[in-house]
User: Fold this.
Amino acid sequence: MTTASSADHPTRRDFLFVATGAAAAVGGAAALWPFVSQMNPDASTIAAGAPIEVDLSPVAEGQDIKVFWRGKPIYISHRTKKQIDEARAVNVASLPDPQSDEARVKSGHDQWLVVIGICTHLGCIPIAHEGNYDGFFCPCHGSQYDSSGRIRQGPAPANLPVPPYQFVSDTKIQIG
Amino acid sequence: MSGPSDYQPSNPALQWIERRLPIMGLVHSSFVIYPTPRNLNYWWTFGAILSFMLGIQILTGVILAMHYTPHADLAFKSVELLVRDVNYGWLLRNMHAVGASMFFVAVYVHMLRGLYYGSYKEPREVLWILGVIIYLLMMATGFMGYVLPWGQMSFWGATVITNLFSAIPYVGESIVTLLWGGYSVGNPTLNRFFSLHYLLPFLIAGVVVLHVWALHVAGQNNPDGVEPKTEKDTVPFTPHATIKDGFGVACFMLLYAWFIFYMPNYLGDADNYIPANPGVTPPHIVPEWYYLPFYAILRSIPNKLAGVIGMFSAIIILCFLPWLDAARTKSSKYRPLAKQFFWIFVAVCILLGYLGAQPPEGIYVIAGRVLTFCYFAYFLIVLPLLSRIETPRPVPNSIAEAVLAKTGSKSTPMVSTVIALALVGALFAGSVDSARAEEGGTRPPGNNWSFSGPFGTFDRGALQRGLKVYKEVCANCHGLSFIAFRNLGDPGGPGYSTAQVAAFASDYKVKDGPNDQGDMFERPGRPADYFPSPFPNEQAARAANGGAAPPDLSLITKARSYGRGFPMFIVDFFSQYQEQGPDYVSAVLQGFEDKAPEGVTIPEGSYYNKYFPGHAIKMPKPLSDGQVTYDDGSPTTVAQYAKDVTTFLMWTAEPHMEARKRMGFQVFIFLIIFAGLMYFTKKKVWADSH
Assistant:
């Protein structure tokens, strides 16, 4: 390609080759984008992930329910006084993922714990009301969470995450 | 692929690999230093174009399979929803559907090039036969792919083509049952066709490797048909052929993009936007354009078995071409008689294609028989005879000599090129257009739609008014099942805000459930919900409407069409006129007349409509002046209602139309610049070689 038989315009020739190569590269990269972008959730999946409302009135103290939002199980626990006291008696600094119970619930609705029920270790679903901490126990690899959904023991690195939610009334929450 | 290479990479790591797997040497010897005849013309770039198309088809096909559901009840919907909801789904589907046609355009050019220049002759017989095998595999793949969207043409195409095998004596019926996996074309058929449609392209790719291997053993043929003798006759594959092929691909992409972005449905059949219905055969069953010549041969022979044998022989006969044509001169350039018969043969194929799309009656049947005879006569009579009686013109001694002699006489190939392109274009357009033959309705008048043409956009006001007309009038009987309320707020649509969409949706009652008690319940609609259908099922729709179920309107403007006739269909290719569907819908809405004209009897329970095929429509006149109130001061006339609701229904049929045309413009700007750059680069690279 670089034989110098047209030595009268070597720079013009090089510029042409570079411009053509650059155009091919830009076009190829741009053409690649739709092929990657199509893997993202499609419009119907995104629309189906809209916020949901959950009525809390049927959930008695000490009970919990599991609802699904965006394909993820959400635990909603109506905690007993004992569970709340246990969660608040802990020395926060001693926890693997330090977070106070107050920061994980909505103030004024302290009896309600809303967490995404997916173990932060490898994605299994912990069982409620099991384990040594009055909270959740993951049967896959033995992670244990307390009554605030915080990791206390086992391989999981972080607390059960709290999904975005708000109380629309005293007995109704909107998740999302 | 042409023997061991002495290629030695300089990088020690690459050397380590190369000693164990000489793959870089293989690439180097096959695609870099490989000697390619220096007199190849642009017809030789179609090999690269075909490789490119195969790659595109496999890539887009694998991706479409990620979003497609191969089930008889879900396939049609999944295709429609992937076009609407998946990011760039419309683009990927257009690329794949149009890509199939482009693949066949390229393969036909490639085959005719081989035929003209004698590329099947010794020592390239195996190369040629491998090509015929690829072509057969392509036909099988294309057919099965066409079945997957599970529209009316998919279903009935599958029925007709699989029934070809029932012509085989004794075992035919058993073979057909075996192909179907049932007593008729159904879900098992769709499932296995999907599986095979995924498999066959990889077989094609495998045979392509053999094809290229055989090519690199025998070396490329060339327009003069003399084998390269010295180094002066050839140039290295890279950069010469690579750049030239790249330029060819870039030009081909312009044609490809024209269809993808501006006429995605030009080559398709409107009937395939109607979901498969095993109870109703479309009035004209027509295969895709690339099968039409063979379809014409099938129909010309008035015996089932003989017709099927004739059709398959028309392809298989190509395998024997190297022995049927025994002439020693390869290129038709030096064969004055063979050249003329070649062009006659091309014309025969094109005319057969045209006949394949016509109804099998009257003069078409006779013409079909004559042309079928001509097709086979070319191979069985003309070519064997010519090799005995024709006196070829003297062939140049070497390629270098031919290249030197060429300076000055450039007009002939240009003329033949133009003729060939024009004929191919006519075949293209003609076959497709006649597939939408008219069935006894008056041709609808054309309209001036805001959404037509390369820069067409939807008129937001018309979309909003059309939605109102749909909601207040059409929705009483017609569903809109592919449209969700959220779509009303999508870019390129009626342009409602999120809050307006939510308010609009909440006016509807949507069935949901089951709840914790196991009961179904009604709740206000949400943006994610789809427009509810007015009837719970097709039977209820039928019962409530005098036996004719009102069709779903989501796709109606794409599912209806009419033939534009010659020469309009050719003009349409350039003017991008694609609005036959909207013309028809708008015309039917306005075509009601209280009294049928003299001599036309309309059965009880039907109404006279000037534009409806057959004129007897079960739908009573839906619109009358002043029926729907408009807030924006637009006239409340039937003509305005029809225009607005048709615009709205064009949007429901293709919500991403504006995005398609917008991206099309960007792609064209890029491709024109890129093709220009490739052209000048090619000129520079070849400057020393001409």
Observations:
- The beta strands of chain B are 35-37, 234-236, 509-512, 521-524, 607-608, 616-617.
- The first helix of chain B runs from residue 12 to 20.
- Chain B has a mean pLDDT of 91.
